[in-house]
Design a protein that fits this description.
Layout lengths: L10 E3 L2 H4 L1 H4 L3 H16 L5 E5 L2 H13 L6 E5 L11 E3 L6 H7 L8 E5 L6 H10 L9 E3 L3 H21 L27 H11 L6 E6 L11 H15 L5 E7 L6 H12 L5 E5 L3 H10 L2 E4 L10 H8 L4 E4 L4 H4 L5 E4 L1 E2 L7 H9 L4 H10 L2 E2 L1 H12 L2 H19 L1 H25 L18 H4 L15 E3 L8 H8 L11 H12 L8 H8 L3 H13 L3 E3 L2
Parallel strand pairs: 1-2, 1-4, 2-3, 4-5, 5-6, 7-8, 7-10, 8-9, 10-11, 11-12
Antiparallel strand pairs: 13-14, 15-16
């Protein structure tokens, strides 16, 4: 593969929580993150892969995932507190929507030091809503971007920014607001080859569950919780209503839910509701944490359903995976599925939500902390209608027409491969990163306020301790030119023993290496009663003055140093 210049590359802001469902638990965000990273490793046209992380453990996990994906390009690890080492990479890919913390992290290096490229997953959380507001007053730059995975999500991001700007304009009349970040629509991707059906696995599952050849299997693969994904009752009702039409053809429906339950109350609640609401339709639950069961489910199915009614969902990866498996899909007409499911590949069932003024109290209770996030989602789901009559008609139409299912399934497979495979999506992301890098280059050439560095001591969200807490101590540390001398410690524990007793290592944030502390103390000790100044010791040891000053404060704290008389 021909290597492109680094201006279409992005360093990956890596934490296992965003990319590793195997160890951190399965959820949509992590599954999408792991899928993206594998796609980037396989299809990224880059000379090197760069990871950004807080610690060596995350860098090691990134490297292990790269190795598993067969990466042969060099890997480069950059610590997040040493971002001056990021160059020549100009873009940082952040696995969530853009947030103010990342803007402030960049500020001491200059607004044009690098561009930030975030991506939407769930956008209904209070944290995300507040983050979008905060970036409009943070040092966010016009070359930053929030990748919106659907047109509906792009609209919601614009709404949040308009509301933020409306407030700020009223609060600070005449203030000039910064240019918004880029808001491109780029879908999530899948590895289509992973979802090719296995007829033998499909037959084995149908045999295991007692499903006859003339029966129609309707399935979904999802997190099984009505608070965060979908309420199954409308689907149960629709399947029971559609069952007579299939019975006339000599078959019956089987419903497979392949997923994991978040809460212990739901397995029995789902099963009981299925018995009561669709007595004519056998209900089967399979473990969605088992990759074999997921593969078997897609291989055994005739129709894939995704009846989402929840604000938690923003794109809908599962229908894309089903399309890649060659299945026709029935989905709710909801957010990302408005983009992904066209009439040739499936059927979108109309939805409706509370009108203006009818649910404001729900959002206010969530914002104020009276209601939890799950309560907020659950209440809004309860006020979101999935048209049961239209869902019934869709199930009937596909159930009794195997030729239509075959045509839609073939079209679905072709659509998934042409639009949603990572080999197609990754180049779109790299094109965005290239656009961001070009904007950076232009800004750097012009200079001005946007590229200026902010004083790291004066960041309003993280001022230097001496600035914010200057009134706390009796006085700041005295002039570094004062003379300090070593203290005769007698029989009490020495420096190394004191350091170990204090157990600094357990916090994983040691103020200084004990060996360096010992070396600095030795310089003061060598001057005996006359002592030495911080500046003198720094010069002799060829160390930065702040390093010696911090060490001297620690040594005075534990009375290894004191003022010379």
């Amino acid at each position: 593969m021909t290597k492109t210049p680094p201006d279409t590359n992005a360093a990956i802001w890596f934490a296992a929580d965003g990319f590793d469902p195997g160890t951190k638990g399965i959820n949509g965000r992590r599954v999408a993150g792991e899928s993206f990273l594998r796609g980037f490793f396989q299809h990224g046209n880059v000379a090197e892969f760069v990871s950004l992380a807080h610690g060596s453990g995350d860098h090691a996990t990134f490297a292990a995932m790269a190795s598993q994906a067969g990466v042969d390009q060099p890997l480069r690890a950059v610590m997040l507190h040493l971002l001056a080492q990021l160059a020549p990479t100009d873009v940082v890919f952040f696995p969530s929507p853009l947030n103010a913390r990342e803007c402030w992290r960049r500020a001491p290096h200059g607004g044009a030091a690098w561009a930030i490229s975030g991506i939407t997953h769930t956008t209904a959380t209070r944290a995300v809503m507040e983050a979008i507001f905060e970036i409009r007053s943070a040092p966010q730059m016009p070359w930053d971007a929030i990748i919106c995975t659907s047109a509906a999500v792009q609209s919601s991001m614009r709404s949040l920014m308009e509301l933020a700007e409306e407030h700020l304009a009223g609060r600070f009349p005449g203030a000039v607001l910064p240019t918004r970040p880029l808001l491109p629509v780029i879908p999530l991707g899948v590895h289509c080859a992973d979802h090719r059906p296995d007829p033998a696995m499909g037959k084995a599952l149908r045999d295991r569950l007692g499903i006859n050849p003339q029966d129609v299997v309707v399935s979904t693969i999802a997190r099984l919780t009505p608070d965060e994904k979908f309420d199954p009752f409308p689907l149960f009702i629709a399947l029971e209503a559609a069952a007579p039409a299939l019975a006339e053809k000599g078959g019956r429906f089987h419903l497979i839910f392949c997923g994991q339950f978040r809460d212990a109350i739901w397995p029995e609640a789902f099963a009981e509701a299925a018995r009561r609401l669709m007595p004519s339709v056998p209900y089967h639950h399979l473990d969605g944490g088992d990759a074999g069961e997921r593969k078997s489910t897609l291989s055994a199915s005739d129709i894939f359903v995704f009846p989402i009614d929840n604000l938690q969902e923003t794109f809908g990866l599962a229908p894309i995976e089903a399309m890649a498996a060659g299945l026709p899909v029935i989905v709710s007409d909801w957010d990302g599925m408005k983009d992904t499911v066209t009439p040739d590949v499936g059927i979108r069932v109309p939805t409706e939500m509370a009108r203006a003024g009818e649910a404001t109290h729900i959002s206010l209770r969530h914002q104020g902390g009276t209601d939890s996030y799950l309560q907020y989602l659950g209440q809004m789901s309860a006020l979101t209608r999935l048209h049961v009559g239209e869902l019934t008609a869709a199930l009937e139409r596909l159930a009794i027409d195997p030729e239509l299912r075959a045509r839609m399934g073939a079209a679905a497979k072709a659509r998934a491969e042409s639009l949603y495979d990572w080999r197609v999506v990754i180049p779109q992301m790299q094109a965005l990163w290239g656009e961001q890098a070009a904007m950076l280059a232009h800004a750097r050439s012009k200079g001005g306020a946007q590229v200026a560095k902010l004083d790291g001591a004066r960041l309003p969200t993280a001022p230097a301790p001496d600035l914010m807490f200057g009134a706390y101590p009796s006085a700041p540390a005295p002039n570094p030119r004062r003379h300090l001398r070593a203290v005769d410690i007698g029989a009490r524990p020495d420096l190394a023993q004191t350091f170990a007793l204090r157990r600094y290592a357990e916090s994983r944030r040691m103020i200084e290496d004990p060996a360096r502390l010992q070396a600095i103390l030795a310089y003061f000790t060598g001057n005996e009663a006359a002592g030495a100044t911080v500046d003198e010791v720094a010069a002799k040891m060829r160390l930065p003055r702040p390093v010696v000053a911090r060490a001297a404060l620690w040594l005075m704290k534990y009375h290894f140093l004191t003022e010379a008389s």
